[in-house]
Design goal:
By secondary structure, the chain is α/β, with parallel strands linked by helices. It contains nine helices and ten strands. The strands form three sheets. It has a four-stranded parallel beta sheet with strand order 2-1-3-4, sandwiched between helices.
């Protein structure tokens, strides 16, 4: 199921989901023996998972990402070579329901340690209302509303919860290096806490709380910092929105003091620029950090998140 959505409410009560650890098989002291690198071999589904594995694993892990830089993760189809890599790995770190081909390959892989990030924090269901503005384009993509939003890594607090679960899973699966995994996880969590504080302080006083994006990736981030995301498209960020939706967005932008339409680096900016031009608004990048490329405003998760914060501060009129 492709889980892109068009709209996210300003405040949603977090699902009371227990923070379960990943599905872990019996641990073994020769856990790295299955891989070919002499290290603890981890296959990650896409960049946010690979970044966690690298930060937590340090020198003890060899990380392979199934999604190439610049590739849209939702569209990934796994090759035979990647399936073989997956089967030979010691662990797989993925986010269930984001990439159907990954889910299927993991289920069939027999990998000793499978870590589903979706089980390490609470995921929320988002409806069809955004801050009181009805999304009037429940047309060809009507099925996607009400699914669980996978974009947990864009909220530093949720990403930190996932990091703790990944660290615990690594400790169990590769106990010889457990102390290092524990220390690396603590250092990463500390950095994510500092990032959360930057966002809290940076977005506390703003002229408006509403921002427009091409697709609804920033719901958790918006909720965390008291903002409202209005998304142009849901299922397909490159599709054309309906005329009613464009009118609705233009009215909302005027009423709520919106200055900017955000687009992302991995998809076309055509729709965002058209709507911005018609409504007399600016455009800028808000990066969902699904992959790092030459176009990214930074070389890693933290640098791009800080660029996102600056873009939001400028668009929202931070004081």
């Amino acid at each position: 199921m492709n889980v892109r959505r068009r709209s996210i409410p300003a405040v949603v009560t977090a699902a009371a989901t227990a923070l379960g650890l990943a599905t872990l098989s019996a641990c073994s002291t020769d856990s790295a023996a299955a891989g070919s690198t002499g290290k603890f071999d981890v296959v990650a589904s896409f960049y946010p998972m690979a970044f966690l594995a690298e930060q937590i694993g340090g020198d003890h892990v060899s990380v392979t990402s199934l999604t190439e830089p610049g590739q849209e993760p939702h569209d990934l189809e796994i090759s035979a070579k990647q399936t073989a890599q997956l089967q030979e790995s010691d662990a797989v770190l993925y986010l269930k329901n984001l990439q159907p081909s990954v889910d299927e390959a993991v289920a069939q892989s027999g990998v000793r340690t499978t870590i589903d990030a979706a089980t390490l924090t609470s995921l929320e269901e988002h409806g069809n209302e955004v801050g009181g503005h009805a999304a009037e384009h429940d047309d060809e993509h009507g099925e996607e509303a009400g699914g669980k939003d996978p974009h947990i890594w864009l909220d530093p607090v949720k990403y930190s919860e996932v990091a703790k679960g990944v660290g615990a899973a690594f400790e169990k699966a590769d106990p010889d290096h457990a102390a290092d995994y524990k220390a690396n996880t603590a250092a990463l969590v500390k950095k994510l806490d500092a990032l959360n504080t930057k966002f809290e302080d940076g977005l506390k006083n703003t002229g408006t709380k509403v921002f427009i994006t091409t697709h609804a990736a920033f719901g958790y981030l918006a909720e965390r910092y008291g903002l409202t995301e209005e998304a142009i498209n849901g299922l397909d960020p490159e599709s054309e929105p309906s005329a009613n939706r464009v009118k609705d967005l233009e009215k909302m932008a005027k009423a709520d003091g919106v200055t900017t339409v955000f687009y992302e680096t991995l998809v076309s900016d055509k729709t965002a620029k058209t709507i911005a031009s018609d409504a007399g608004l600016k455009t800028d990048v808000l990066d969902p950090i699904e992959g790092i490329t030459k176009k990214s405003r930074g070389k890693d998760y933290f640098a791009v998140q800080e660029a996102n914060l600056k873009a939001l501060q400028a668009a929202l009129g931070a004081k």
